[in-house]
């Protein structure tokens, strides 16, 4: 993981030896929409140019990438997002609490939500509204805890104090 304000290169190795790399850039949607992967080498050179002066081994992760690049804009709901009960309907996972991936908890929360919803339905057989109310009563305080953590990490990774703020985070935990 190599980061500085507004940009970073993050990579991890899979069990089969392949390396998956993520490039993070704080850019406008217009800039992102203009990336043209129909000319893949040119697009990779354009992205690597954002890391001028960085270690060649890190830029290689971009320039010699042999997978199809995928652009993923990062969206997040407000940390304390909740909604009024709607009879017969509820939300799980990202639909309920979309957050940036910098705590690595979105999929964990989605699976936990599903398990909790299933449990609430089993414990309130024949009373769907009671089950959904019970599920949401626990969901609303649970999600902001992680959403706040990931929002904090987002600033640590790409804010003005990066990379020192990331080093401090790992030194504490
Ligand atoms: C770069 C990145 C890294 C991440 N890293 C981690 C991590 O390390 N750990 C972690 O726990 N989480 C991580 N996450 C977050 C995690 O991927 C999500 O929180 C999780 O996938 C949410 O699951 P979900 O089922 O709620 O939504 P999704 O996974 O988005 O599933 C929703 C599904 O619904 C489908 N769909 C949408 N609209 C329709 C429609 N109209 N009809 C039918 N189907 C539809 C979509 O195609 C999709 O398959 C990361 C996310 C990103 C972007």
Automatic annotation (TrEMBL):
Keywords of the record: FAD, Flavoprotein, Monooxygenase, Oxidoreductase
One Pfam family linked to the record: FAD_binding_3
Domain FAD-binding: 88-135
Domain of life: Bacteria
Repressor listed as a keyword: no
UniProt xrefs under InterPro entries: FAD-bd (IPR002938), FAD/NAD-bd_sf (IPR036188)
Keyword Oxidoreductase listed: yes
The protein's name: 2-polyprenyl-6-methoxyphenol hydroxylase-like FAD-dependent oxidoreductase
Species this chain originates from: Paraburkholderia silvatlantica
């Amino acid at each position: 993981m190599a980061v500085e304000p507004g940009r970073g290169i993050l990579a991890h190795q899979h069990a089969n030896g392949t390396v998956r790399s993520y490039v993070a850039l704080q850019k406008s949607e217009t800039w992102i929409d203009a990336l043209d992967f129909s000319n893949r080498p040119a697009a990779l050179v354009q992205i690597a140019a954002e890391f001028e002066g960085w270690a060649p081994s890190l830029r290689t992760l971009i320039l010699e990438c042999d997978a199809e690049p995928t652009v993923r804009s990062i969206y997040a709901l407000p940390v304390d997002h909740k909604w009024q009960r709607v009879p017969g309907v509820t939300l799980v996972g990202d639909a309920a609490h979309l957050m940036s991936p910098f705590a690595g908890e979105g999929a964990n929360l989605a699976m936990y939500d599903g398990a909790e919803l299933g449990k609430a339905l089993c414990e309130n057989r024949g009373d769907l509204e009671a089950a959904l109310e019970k599920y949401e009563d626990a969901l609303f305080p649970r999600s902001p805890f992680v959403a706040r953590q990931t929002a904090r990490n987002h600033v640590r990774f790409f804010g003005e104090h990066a990379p020192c703020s990331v080093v401090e985070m790992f030194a504490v935990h």
